């Protein structure tokens, strides 16, 4: 009985080894890889103080985003610091402060190895002039440091979706007091290795 089991096992191994080069040759001809694009959108919550007190006022925002996107073919780690000057506060809560803008895109196609790790670590800026001016300074919480007055909570997962650029996964960072949302959309773009 053991002899039959051993013979069957040897036969299966030899058949599997025979098909392995064929599978590698077929897969190598058109192996599908990926590269990523990250876009940012900044919006307000309906109860945001800037909406109720400063409709139509001008201001500016700047972000700090930590990004880690590593693969065998390309490596990137660093802080991205986009700024958005001359923003007008919209009339209502349905319109974004900052329209969808490309934050970062990979140049190199690489093997599928998961999503880049991206975190909004800081949001700053101001709106209005004179006595009615509102300053925004939100950071995320750090171990051993007091909770910031306007805490930034990163990593809130949103529902996946699709738009004119393609399918995306979305994550939100939200400020506690100023009630602003920073949405990061990660687009996986198919490409050939």
Using only CA atoms, what is the Rg? 24 Å
Task: Find the count of extended strands (DSSP E, 2+ residues).
Answer: 11
Helix coverage percent of residues?
10-25%
User: Which of globular, elongated, flat, extended, rod-shaped describes the shape?
Assistant: elongated
Oligomeric state of this protein: single chain
Whole-number mean pLDDT: 85
Low-confidence stretches: 19-23
Kindly list the characteristics that best describe this protein:
single chain, 193 residues, alpha+beta, six-stranded antiparallel sheet, five-stranded antiparallel sheet, 11 strands, 49% strand
Word description of this protein:
- The protein contains 2 helices and 11 strands.
- With 193 residues, the chain is α+β, with helices and mostly antiparallel strands.
- Strands 1, 5, 8, 9, 10 and 11 form a 6-stranded antiparallel β-sheet that branches. Strands 2, 3, 4, 6 and 7 form a 5-stranded antiparallel β-sheet that branches.
- Strand 6 and strand 7 (134-139) form a beta hairpin.
């Amino acid at each position: 009985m053991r002899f039959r089991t051993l013979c069957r096992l040897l036969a299966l191994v030899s058949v599997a080894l025979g098909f392995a080069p064929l599978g590698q040759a077929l897969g190598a001809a058109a192996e599908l890889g990926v590269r990523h694009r990250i876009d940012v959108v900044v919006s307000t919550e309906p109860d945001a103080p800037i909406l109720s007190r400063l409709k139509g006022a001008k201001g500016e925002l700047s972000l700090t985003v930590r990004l880690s996107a590593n693969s065998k073919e390309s490596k990137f780690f660093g802080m991205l610091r986009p700024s958005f000057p001359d923003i007008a506060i919209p009339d209502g809560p349905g319109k974004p402060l900052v329209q969808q803008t490309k934050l970062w895109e990979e140049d190199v196609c690489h093997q599928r190895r998961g999503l880049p790790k991206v975190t909004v670590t800081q949001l700053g800026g101001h709106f209005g002039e004179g006595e009615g001016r509102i300053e925004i300074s939100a950071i995320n919480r750090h171990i051993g440091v007091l909770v910031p007055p306007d805490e930034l909570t990163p990593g809130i997962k949103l529902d996946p979706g699709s738009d004119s650029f393609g399918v995306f996964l979305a994550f939100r960072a939200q400020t506690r007091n100023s009630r602003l949302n920073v949405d990061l959309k990660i687009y996986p773009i198919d490409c050939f290795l």
